[in-house]
Design brief:
The chain has one domain. 33% of the residues lie in helices and 13% in strands. The chain has 12 helices and 10 strands.
């Protein structure tokens, strides 16, 4: 006979699928021992660049019980964002994750629904939803939950679906059945390391954040360094190179989340259109998009750098 814990686990996973998540894995909440020295080394080497928020809440990043009292389980969820159509290939490029509506809002709503479901169906369960904006090591938890392995480009990879997905968590004070870790399937492949335009993947599984095109075009508020001129491969917001070349992304299938569909103008714009973009057009094309983080001034700075 199926026990209560297994029953709850199955209920949660089937509700996650109903809400549109690609997959759902669960791991025991506890201190991330292997990640601690890795994170410490990464910060010590200054690979966070100007992303000083990465230095905050070091303990919380490694221990979910500091985020949710009496945390028992970390429920990791993946949401596909791979588009069915791409931008005009002759144009400046935007990372695929930013084509549609800002994922923070889309996923947060789904997580709230999932937590509500758990509380309604199972009873008094305390938990918190996390989408990339709190001190949680998303990829480490997803890997622990068996949803994939951390690849040489430091992204979570899955044999079934590649890597074009968002990662989110619910941390709850409920005991559930835990999934097992999967194995690494990068093998001898170095496609991502070889293709990175700024050589940001400084060693297999180590990305120097301060050299990444996504960092320069989104996080860096200062002027872009002249030493990087000509190395951005036409990316004006984010970068997908290390994912585009990954052999596992042959298995990416288009998402079916209408909120992630882009404004058609975004796909058809030429370089000239981008160079002449007005505040009004920017607002229309990126109405609820993650691109608003850079503001029009940031996007123009990036475009000027590419010219």
């Amino acid at each position: 006979m199926i026990n209560q814990q297994s029953k709850y686990t199955q209920m949660i996973k089937s509700e996650a699928a109903r809400l549109g998540f690609l997959s759902c894995g669960i791991s025991k909440a506890g201190f991330l021992e292997e990640e601690a020295p890795r994170l410490e080394r990464w910060l010590k080497n200054g690979m966070q660049g100007e992303m000083h928020y990465m230095e905050n809440h070091f303990d919380k990043r490694l221990d979910p019980t500091l985020l949710v009292d009496d945390a028992k389980s970390v429920i990791s969820l993946l949401l596909n964002y791979y588009p069915s159509e791409n931008q005009n290939p002759e144009s400046y490029k935007i990372s695929k994750y930013a084509y549609g509506e800002d994922y923070h809002f889309v996923i947060k709503d789904k997580l709230k629904d999932l937590l509500q479901f758990i509380q309604t169906e199972i009873g008094e369960v305390s938990g918190r939803a996390f989408v990339d904006s709190a001190p949680v090591l998303d990829k480490a938890w997803a890997a622990k939950s068996g949803l994939g392995w951390i690849g040489k480009n430091a992204n979570l990879l899955s044999k079934q679906v590649g890597s074009f997905f968002f990662i989110a968590e619910l941390i709850v004070d409920l005991d559930l059945d835990y999934d097992t870790i999967t194995t690494d399937h990068c093998g001898k492949c170095t496609a991502c390391i070889d293709a990175c335009p700024t050589e940001a993947i400084v060693a297999p599984y180590v990305v120097d954040g301060s050299k990444c095109i996504s960092y320069f075009t989104i996080e860096l508020k200062d002027n872009l360094p002249e030493s990087m001129k000509g190395k951005f491969d036409e990316w004006m917001f984010g970068c997908d190179v290390c994912q585009d070349v990954c052999p596992w992304n042959r298995f990416s299938k288009p998402h079916n989340e209408p909120l992630f569909n882009p404004n058609p103008e975004l796909l058809s714009f030429s370089k000239r259109d981008w160079e002449e973009i007005t505040e009004e057009t920017f607002r229309r094309v990126f109405k609820n998009s993650a691109v608003k983080r850079t503001k029009l001034s940031g996007l123009k700075r990036n475009i000027d750098f590419l010219k």
